[in-house]
Write a structure and sequence with these properties.
Elements (H helix, E strand, L loop, with lengths): L2 E3 H4 L3 H5 L9 E4 L5 E11 L4 E7 L8 E5 L4 E3 L4 E4 L5 H5 L12 H11 L52 H4 L3 H4 L130
């Protein structure tokens, strides 16, 4: 019967067995008294996951000694978050328990030493004392009184060994009393409104250059020289002597101009663009069916049950 520390057997024991709570660290009290004897250091389970022992760290009560407490010899008050060690009622009893160490392998011999302290010894019936018959003698005989022999306690011989022992043989030591340990919870579903922010897309705002051909009509002026030849008035009249001046090299110069189109480009601000985000709020209506557990109390006979008591 191998035993395992609860965390080694199931690393998720708090979530699966105790709804996120931890049995380790709960205060332990002697019997049903208010005398604190230590705290729960660990728990040992068998290969089927059933609790068999609580490891109690006695702290200053017995100088930090750790001992094993069978689960059947304790009562758990879940509401007060404390454990009552009904199997340990005195410091003398705890001192007789073998000390536990985290590196210790709990085998059959060690468990028998633990069980031997918790077992209630069986007392055999007293052996009847046979009185010797009166002695007849002459004269007066003074009766001699002998002390009655003390009852002898016969050691009980176990009818099992390491190969046949099972925890079911001693249910008072290894079976937890459900009436003293149960914790009944009622659950209900509630509508939890939450929002999940998710990305729906990207908006990229940038610039690109478009090219187009622009046409412009620019009026330009060009000068030209017009040479007109026509017959002068009095062309039939003869020139007087000395009037005609025949000279060579006489030149008339006329400057001629014309306009040419000059086209340049300049950049101007055409438009300004503001980029921002706006949040639009909307209301989403959701309908869900919620479940709720209600307590059913089945009463048989005439017990007194306070159904509506709340603490």
């Amino acid at each position: 019967m191998a035993l395992y520390k609860i965390k080694d057997f199931n690393p998720n024991y708090r979530e699966e067995a105790f709804d996120g709570e931890d049995i380790k660290g709960l205060n332990v009290y002697a019997g049903r008294t208010e005398e604190k004897i230590g705290t729960i250091h660990d728990a040992l389970v068998d290969d089927s996951g059933r609790f068999r022992y609580l490891v109690i760290d006695t702290g200053f009560w017995i100088f930090g000694k750790k001992v094993l407490l069978p689960v059947g010899r304790c009562q758990v008050d879940a509401r007060a978050q404390r454990v009552y060690a009904t199997g340990i009622t005195s410091k003398d009893q705890a001192e007789h328990l073998p000390e536990y160490d985290d590196s210790l392998t709990v085998d059959y011999d060690y468990e028998e030493r633990v069980r031997g302290v918790y077992r209630t010894p069986t007392t055999e019936a007293s052996i009847p004392v046979e009185m010797s018959p009166p002695v007849e003698a002459s004269g007066t005989v003074e009766a001699t009184s002998q002390p009655a022999p003390r009852p002898t306690r016969q050691p009980s011989v176990p009818d099992y060994d390491r190969s046949t022992y099972t925890y079911d043989r001693e249910p008072d030591m290894y079976t937890m009393n459900e009436q003293n340990h149960q914790k009944f919870r009622l659950y209900e579903e509630r509508l939890v409104a939450n929002k999940h922010r998710q990305k729906t897309g990207d908006v990229t705002v940038g610039k690109h250059v478009e090219t187009e051909t622009a046409r412009a009509s620019i009026p330009v002026e060009k000068e030209r020289v017009v040479v007109e030849r026509h017959n002068p008035t009095g062309a039939s009249r003869a020139a007087a002597p000395g009037e005609a001046n025949f000279r060579e090299g006489q030149v008339a110069r006329v400057e001629v101009y014309e306009e040419t189109a000059e086209v340049g480009k300049q950049a101007f601000v055409r438009e300004e663009v503001d980029i921002r985000k706006e949040v639009k709020q909307d209301t989403v209506e959701v309908n869900e069916k919620l479940r709720r557990e209600e307590l059913d109390v089945d009463v048989k006979g005439n017990p007194v049950v306070d159904r509506d008591k709340r603490v």
